[in-house]
Design goal:
This protein is α/β, with parallel strands linked by helices. The protein contains 14 helices and 14 strands. The strands form four sheets. A seven-stranded mixed sheet has the order 2-8-7-6-5-3-4, sandwiched between helices. A three-stranded antiparallel sheet has the order 9-14-13. Strands 1-12 form a two-stranded parallel ribbon. It is globular. 49% of the residues are buried.
């Protein structure tokens, strides 16, 4: 059967590939410690499950309005106003099938072939592919450990051309675990003033901030930033609702209407009863998210300290999300267990096959010196897995 060139050009997700291989090994009875998946190990809070179950029992199983039920969009607008200082009307919000869907729909709605998208490293593996599927070109902005894996205002200004249509921002960041400070974001916003560059701000990890770092929405920085920004968020990470697939996009009305038209032909609406579970989450007063955040912060501190104690590892302290992103390139050129290690791909493959520890290589994130480890797993698994890494590197 003929497969389109468009789809053939899109590789499978690197994070899911590692996760799949780890699951295959576990199914064979192998004791694998996985740091691969970007998924909380907590269960969805019961009050959210109950709300979805009650909705099903009440017969809320038919179509809804394409952008989501009015109650949910109103709750999202209230949340954005109260927590993010963003004044969006419900009609400026579209509920999508996960934040990944939000990113894809946004790109499809605002990009044309020939457009350029500024994409700072490290970037989530899906961003380059959604840019490609929109017919646009990714212009990668390299960062280093010395800059905290963040772009500078000077770097941003130098990269803008008459073809630049969009800046892709993700803070707190997957895979880097860093977060731009309010001052750093304000400096970037200043550079964009007077340009036609839009901003896609992926804020899915906003509630998972550590070490006293403060989160700020890019669109809240100024009227100019508000008018050029699409804000993406969701409930997958903070509420442990990855499988529920609920994301949302807020922004200028013309862009949201365009996304809604597209969604009407793609999925019609987000799953109906799931929206009522999400509505319960948006109105949470139980402190469920904070309990998870506190535990993630403890795990992140332990993982960062243990990784930095390994010879040849250089790891920044996680500021947000639930990832450590150490530079392991000091081990390139070695032969370990018969495997020659010359890249993050070699490192991750050999570590999984020889030590039964799953990590994600940095190459697909635009950072070939690094690997990503998720601390969305138990403290016991963190200790066990890093013990194995240390022993493996001594081989």
């Amino acid at each position: 059967m003929k497969i389109s060139q468009r789809v053939q050009a899109v590789p499978p997700s690197a994070t899911m590939a590692v996760t799949t291989r780890a699951k295959e090994m576990k199914a064979q009875g192998i004791d694998v410690v996985s740091f691969a998946a970007g998924e909380p190990d907590f269960d969805t809070p019961d009050f959210i499950k109950d709300a979805a179950i009650e909705a099903m029992k009440a017969g809320k199983t038919g179509y809804t309005a394409t952008p989501g039920i009015p109650e949910l969009r109103t709750a999202i607008a209230e949340k954005l106003k109260t927590e993010n200082n963003l004044d969006y009307k419900p009609e400026q919000i579209v509920v999508n099938i996960g934040a990944k869907h939000s990113v894809y729909e946004s790109m499809q709605a605002i990009l044309d072939p020939g457009d350029e998208v500024l994409l700072p490293t490290p970037y989530w593996v899906t961003y380059p592919e959604t840019i490609k599927l929109a017919g646009a070109t990714a212009v990668v902005l390299e960062t280093t450990a010395e800059t905290g894996y963040k772009i500078t205002p000077e770097q941003l200004g130098a990269a803008i051309t008459d073809k630049t249509a969009l800046l892709m921002l993700n803070s707190p960041n997957n895979p880097g675990g860093f977060a731009y400070s309010p001052e750093e974001l304000a400096a970037l916003a200043k550079v964009l003033e007077g340009t036609n560059v839009m901003v896609l701000s992926d804020e899915i990890y906003e509630r998972l901030m550590y070490a006293g770092n403060k989160f700020v929405s890019f669109a809240s920085l100024s009227e100019d930033a508000y008018n050029r920004t699409l804000t993406i968020n969701g409930l997958s990470k903070a509420f442990a609702m990855t499988g529920w697939r609920v994301g949302y996009t807020a922004g200028p009305i013309d862009a949201i209407k365009a996304m809604t038209r597209l969604q009407s032909h793609m999925t019609q609406n987000p799953v109906t009863f799931v929206q009522y579970g999400a509505l319960a989450g948006m109105k949470d007063t139980t402190g469920a998210v904070e309990k998870m955040r506190v535990e993630f912060e403890k795990r992140g501190q332990v993982m960062e300290q243990r990784l930095n104690a390994i010879e040849g590892f250089k790891c920044h302290q996680p500021e947000g999300a639930f990832y450590c992103f150490p530079d392991v390139s000091a081990h390139y050129g070695r032969v370990i267990g018969g495997a020659e290690i010359n890249s993050s791909m070699d490192f991750a493959k050999a570590l999984l096959e020889q030590a039964q520890v799953a990590v994600v290589p940095g190459d697909p994130f635009g950072c070939p010196k690094n690997i990503r480890l998720s601390f969305a797993t138990s403290m016991e698994q963190i200790e066990k897995g890093i013990d194995r890494i240390q022993e493996w590197l001594k081989a």
